[in-house]
Automatic annotation (TrEMBL), chain B:
High-level lineage: Bacteria, Pseudomonadati, Pseudomonadota, Gammaproteobacteria, Oceanospirillales
UniProt-recorded name of the protein: Sarcosine oxidase subunit delta family protein
Region (Disordered) residue spans: 104-129
Regions crossing the membrane: none
Gene3D superfamilies: Folate-binding superfamily
């Protein structure tokens, strides 16, 4: 991958692509790499269990900060979804593969498919120009786990202090909360699944907690090899 | 275990998600170089310790990570209201009795009574105090 392609300068900010190209000779390792080495994470697929936990590694995570109106225009133009203006809102695009989440009154988390975040950040920066805003690529610091299965809610009831019943966490809601003494972002993107955004340094702890808490139901943690 | 209303998330959240951060409404001297050591010491180190109404800063540490203010009764631990940074309390030591007589405040433990009310007041009664 050429230097010119992986680095850019938009406005007064230098940006760079955090995904090494296939020819860069670097094997990317997700935050669950240690868990995988320990045998706690298996390849995707296999016999159906009552709970499935699937890591979606290497997604593009961007934190946007700034005024809602300014950012809303730019996000709508680039992603085709409007910024969730209501607290704790989570919106997905038509495909369901890109999401924008309310984090605090001036902060949103954007998650896009792997490799899209570099171009997206540059396009957003170009569009926002001199507006008062910040964009930070936090993809290296966290990873996303999808929880599905009939017992997924019961597993969460043992793990988080938040009310995960339908009236507490309906589809389209996302909260930061306490998960087994650490912090996670808990999201409800669709009826069928929950999502956990876990910090890199706590990823192995979270996986081992999930495996332990899910043992009575049958639970497997899966992640596709890079 | 009790719930605190976050004025930014706009809902009740578990106490575990929050952290107290001391007395609210402290004003940093505009020109630190011109104040006396006593004044600077007061600003930096000395805090009120009232019996009764106290305004404190808290942070929704594991949620939205915003700082906000709480008016709390230090004798009953009751949280009377929560409000955003930059806003002023509606309940103060001067008007607390009046507010109580107006029925703004209830005696139910744990629930704040200004801002959003719990949908069901029986929730309060069922909470062991
Ligand atoms: Zn909050």
């Amino acid at each position: 991958m050429s230097e010119a392609h992986s680095e850019a300068s938009v406005g007064n900010a230098a940006t760079f692509d955090t995904h090494p190209g296939a020819d860069a000779g670097v094997t990317p390792e997700s935050p669950l790499q240690w868990s995988r080495v320990q045998g706690h994470v298996t390849e995707e697929g296999g016999a159906a269990e009552q709970i499935r936990v699937v890591e979606r590694p290497f997604l593009g995570h961007l934190v946007l900060r700034g005024g809602a109106i300014t950012l809303d225009e730019a996000v709508r133009a680039e992603l085709g979804v409007s910024l969730p203006g209501k607290p704790l809102g989570l919106v997905l695009d038509a495909e369901g593969s890109r999401s924008v989440q309310w984090v605090s009154p001036d902060e949103w988390l954007v998650i896009v498919p792997a490799g899209e975040e570099f171009e997206l950040e540059n396009r957003l920066r170009a569009r926002l120009g001199d507006a008062h805003f910040a964009i930070v690529n936090v993809g290296g610091g966290q990873t996303l786990l999808e929880l599905s299965g009939e017992k997924a809610r019961e597993l969460l009831m043992k793990s988080v202090v938040y009310d995960v019943h339908e009236h507490g966490l309906p589809v389209g809601k996302a909260v930061g909360t306490v998960f087994a003494k650490t912090s996670v972002v808990l999201r409800r993107p669709t009826e069928a699944r929950f999502e956990l955004v876990v910090r890199r340094s706590f990823a192995d702890y979270c996986v081992r907690w999930l495996r332990d808490a899910g043992r009575e139901y049958g639970l497997r943690v899966e992640s596709a090899s890079p | 275990m009790f719930h605190i209303f976050c004025p930014y998330c706009q809902e009740y959240r578990e106490e575990e998600e929050f952290h107290p951060s001391g007395q609210a409404h402290l004003v940093r001297p505009a020109d630190p170089a011109s104040v006396s050591d006593d004044e600077w010491g007061d600003y930096l180190f000395f805090r009120d310790n009232p019996r009764g109404i106290h305004h404190e800063m808290w942070v929704h540490r594991l949620g939205c990570r915003k700082f906000f203010n709480i008016t709390r009764d230090t004798t009953s631990y009751e949280i009377l209201e929560t409000y955003r940074m930059g806003e002023q309390p509606s309940i103060t030591a001067a008007n607390a009795e009046v507010r109580r007589e107006q029925g703004v405040q209830t005696a139910d433990g744990g629930w704040q009574t200004v801002g959003a009310q719990p949908e069901n007041s029986r929730l309060n009664e069922e909470t062991p105090s």
